[in-house]
Amino acid sequence: MESQIFEICKKIFNDMSSLLSNYYGDSINVFADLNGKLGSIPNGLEWKKFIDANKEKLISSKAEDGMLESNLDSLSLKTPNAAELVIPTYKPGRNSLKRDVKDITFANDSHQATLPILEGVLSKKEGTLSKKYVSYYYVITRAKYLLEFQSRSAESYQPTLVLYLPECMLKPPGKKDDANTFIIYGKDATGVLKTRKNNIFKTQSSDEYMVC
Q1: pTM of the predicted model, to two decimals?
Q2: How many structural domains is the chain composed of?
Q3: Contact of 9 with 3, CB cutoff 8 Å
Q4: How many other β-carbons are positioned within 10 Å of the β-carbon of residue 172?
Q5: Which residues of the chain have pLDDT under 50?
């Protein structure tokens, strides 16, 4: 019974296709050919052509990852001795376009005006109710700016605090402040309101305090 119903459905679909082909002519075949050709094109064809044409200029490409695939072939689970099991390792090929931050050079990178006067880690008191000291990386430039960064890494290039020292005032620590602390009263150039406030800093030792 199922085969008879399926046979009738196939005949109905064939008659309908013939009717549409006779009514619309060759336009049906054109769209069918276009659909077939479009479906035969791989999704990553253009990207593969781009990689093949520029593999020498790309930082990472599959041309450098063949070592992992070759090591995978040597991985065998048939041996009962676990000591003989070969673990694949990934050793990517070196690409000359990969640059290190230390190797980057630019105009005036070693000029006297670009070198900081003083740099290092200080602790700054933060918080509203429960205040605590948080460590940041600070730089004093030759333009007399005190810059605060989250860390010394290359990702922390945007300062979180900017104080123009000639417009600031150095205040002595209060009686309740910890040892090796000092206060810089000034306005943060990165803030929206730019209101003046006390910035309490602390060094790790008395020697560092004397340098500051």
Answers
A1: 0.49
A2: 3
A3: no
A4: 8
A5: 61-77, 79
